[in-house]
């Protein structure tokens, strides 16, 4: 979802997805401009593993719809060769609270337990997480410690992560989510490539190209 679509649709119904993509051959070689885009100014990346990042927003219905396919794909990545991270982004002021929530969950080591439940709370249960009381209600329903999460959200460390997330999103030129960035060079997405499975297949080939 891009900025324009967000303003007009907000929490609209997500796109239906097909079977989760596996580490498999893409349907033909990916073409720049059709399946992926080049980052205008390549970003410096650490040596070693290929750096792959998903830019997303909990508030985004397309990110929610993409999550099952993405999660299946992430589980098959070779951990010794690819480093995968998620970066929450904000296009509106109120999105920042959702960024803080993700980083708090991450800091507490609760991504595996709570990440999916946030999407469900928003897109299935149709509830918000803008206020402390709303976060407490979600935490109670999800078996999480609301006090620890809220304290983490207000911490100095999370503020630093917000700044780094903003810098990385700006470096990639992110104007819509979900988007996958590959090693500071390229980005693709279901909307760019034509669907979630294709986006992940394109990502596989871009990873292979970096490793080559």
Automatic annotation (TrEMBL):
It is found in: Periplasm. Gene3D superfamilies: Glutaredoxin (3.40.30.10). Residues 15-155 form the Thioredoxin domain. Keywords: Disulfide bond, Periplasm, Redox-active center, Signal. It holds the Pfam family DSBA. Coiled coil: none annotated. Residues 1-26 form the signal peptide. Belongs to the thioredoxin family. DsbA subfamily. This is Thiol:disulfide interchange protein.
């Amino acid at each position: 979802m891009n900025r324009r679509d967000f303003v007009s649709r907000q929490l609209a119904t997500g796109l239906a997805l097909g079977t989760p993509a596996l580490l498999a051959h893409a349907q033909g070689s990916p073409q720049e401009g059709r399946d992926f885009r080049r980052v205008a100014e390549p970003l410096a990346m650490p040596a070693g593993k290929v750096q792959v990042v998903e830019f997303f927003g909990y508030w985004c219905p397309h990110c929610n719809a993409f999550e099952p396919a993405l999660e299946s794909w992430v589980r098959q990545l070779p951990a010794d060769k690819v480093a995968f991270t998620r970066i929450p982004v904000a296009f509106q002021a109120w999105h920042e609270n959702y960024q803080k929530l993700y980083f708090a969950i991450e800091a507490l080591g609760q991504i595996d337990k709570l990440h999916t439940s946030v999407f469900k709370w928003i897109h299935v249960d149709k509830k918000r997480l803008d206020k402390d009381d709303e976060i407490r209600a979600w935490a109670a329903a999800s078996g999480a410690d609301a006090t620890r999460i809220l304290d983490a959200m207000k911490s100095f460390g999370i503020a630093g992560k917000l700044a780094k997330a903003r810098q990385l999103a700006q470096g990639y030129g992110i104007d819509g989510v979900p988007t996958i960035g590959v090693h500071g060079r390229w980005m693709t997405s279901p909307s760019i490539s034509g669907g979630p499975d294709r986006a992940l297949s394109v990502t596989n080939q871009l990873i292979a190209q970096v490793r080559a």
